[in-house]
Amino acid sequence: QIIDIKFQDIEPPSGQVSEAFREVTNAREEKNTKINNAVKYENDNADIIFDLTADNINVTGKDAISKNFFNIALNDNPIYNFEINVGATSMNLDFSDYKIAELDVNGGACDIDVKLGDLYDFTDVSINTGVSGIKIGVPANSGCRVICESVLTNKNFEGFDKKTAGIYETSNYSSAQNVINIEFAGAVSDFEIYRY
């Protein structure tokens, strides 16, 4: 019966055996790293923050006229949380093919066109602007609630029922598989939500 073994000095074999041993060890470590990274990001949210204030963006010369133009392509696997802080802007955001958990837009005078999808169970949208034109597309099969706190705003919520002052819901809000909640605060705006 062996009770204990103590190694005092261990050296790996030299030459080809040592090189093969190192390659196998490196491959195993690389495989474990890839598996760990995949598991780590499998259920993570992707947080994307756009802060396009004058202090953060500085483009001069011939390109200054189009300094805040962005065309962004996204991976359709993550669950996204967007925070967009802008001044006077025009935005066309087509999120119909993406899982959006949160969309938070804070801006001044804005022209915003957003198309949401039905790929995530629960989406929260918050829009806080000054003088603006807001247009939001919501899938017909999604339940939707709108809370609108605004002054001098023209509202067009086709397919929504007014529940109380400033609160509107689609008829399928409590039974839909996915739900979209929209909060809007603004003044002197046109605010439209359409179903597609």
Set out the fold topology.
Elements: H1 16-42, E1 45-51, E2 79-85, E3 89-95, E4 99-106, E5 110-116, E6 122-128, E7 132-138, E8 143-151, E9 154-157, E10 161-164, E11 167-169, E12 179-187, E13 189-195
Parallel strand pairs: 1-2, 2-4, 3-5, 4-6, 5-7, 6-12, 7-13, 8-12, 9-13
Antiparallel strand pairs: 8-11, 10-11
How would you describe this structure to a colleague?
The protein has 196 residues and is mainly beta. 14% of the residues lie in helices and 44% in strands. It has one helix and 13 strands, in the order αβββββββββββββ. The protein has an eight-stranded mixed sheet with strand order 1-2-4-6-12-8-11-10, with no helix packed on it. A five-stranded parallel sheet has the order 3-5-7-13-9, with no helix packed on it. A hairpin with a 2-residue loop joins strand 10 (161-164) and strand 11 (167-169). It is elongated, with a radius of gyration of 26 Å. 20% of the residues are buried.
